[in-house]
Design goal:
284 residues, alpha+beta, two-stranded antiparallel ribbon, metal-binding, zinc, CHCR_PEP5_VPS11, membrane
């Protein structure tokens, strides 16, 4: 993009000068000048000499000045292209996407706005975007943003909690399962906290399935017994654990299991007593 400065008044013979940005696919400058005689450069300026002796100078603006002009015209898509093609443009990209997101959000284009907000992760506080999309009619867009946030290392348990709540409200059970498998593998998420979130959302069945898959046996049994009432399943689960470990679970959950399934629990106790040297004490 170029600025124009003319040394004196125009004559009656005029020519149109247009400067194109081929990569960005936009016109950077256009104006009428006296009939041209010669074009030449001096340092970073383009000099235009007219037949009547008029000398004009075209000087390229710096990137910040170009972006300011584009912002005033709401040409944010052009600003993105310009920044990407400029040597120092990378440092401006996230702020451009933030401005573009705000502009689209203000126009009610929430889908495209959240696409821009995704590009601001690492610069814009997630809470800014979350507050904008917490409205019930925009939860799907909020999920898109939070999913992108979880693809980075900048999410917290708070963000995970919100995403799971959104999935639950939208009844996206398959997405919940896929998401849980993903966070279980990332190695940085406190799965105990995730299980508590799921239990608060009445999703103990999904949580217990994941706990079994992750071999988090105590969490799995807690949900089977306390939330789902699947005492017989829990007894079978305990019976497959090593004796010492099974004894610990019997000491913790034995009274609840005995009240619900006395015969099965008695059989399990007898088996453990015969195979475990230690004493089993049922929790009161």
């Amino acid at each position: 993009m170029l600025s124009y400065r003319r040394s004196n008044d125009a004559t009656e013979f005029m020519s149109m000068v247009t400067v194109y940005n081929v990569k960005g696919q936009y016109i950077g400058f256009s104006c009428s000048l006296p009939s041209l005689c010669r074009l030449f450069t001096v340092d970073q300026s383009l000099m235009i000499l007219s037949k009547d002796g008029t000398l004009s100078e075209l000087t390229e603006k710096n990137l910040s000045a170009k972006l300011d002009i584009l912002f005033k015209k709401n040409l944010f898509d052009v600003a993105v292209i310009l920044a990407k093609s400029s040597r120092d443009g990378a440092e401006h990209l996230k702020s451009i996407h933030a401005k573009y997101g705000d502009y689209l959000y203000g126009k009610g284009d929430f889908n495209n706005a959240v696409s821009e907000y995704k590009e601001t992760i690492g610069m814009l506080e997630p809470s800014y975007v979350i507050k904008r999309y917490l409205d019930g009619s925009r939860l799907r867009q909020l999920c898109v943003y939070l999913e992108a946030l979880h693809d980075t290392d900048r999410y917290t348990l708070y963000h995970t909690n919100i995403l799971l709540n959104c999935y639950a409200q939208l009844e996206e059970r398959k997405k919940i399962q896929n998401f849980l498998e993903k966070v279980a593998l990332d190695g940085r998420t406190d799965m105990s906290s995730i299980f508590e979130v799921l239990r608060s959302l009445k999703m103990s069945e999904d949580a217990s399935f994941l706990a079994v898959k992750l071999s988090m046996h105590d969490h799995a049994l807690s949900m089977m017994i306390e939330d789902l009432g699947r005492h017989a399943t829990a007894i079978k689960y305990i019976s497959k654990r090593p004796p010492d470990e099974a004894c610990q679970y019997i000491e913790k959950y034995g009274r609840l299991l005995f009240e619900a399934c006395p015969d099965e629990t008695t059989d399990l106790l007898q088996h453990l007593i015969e195979n475990s040297p230690g004493r089993i004490t049922l929790a009161r």
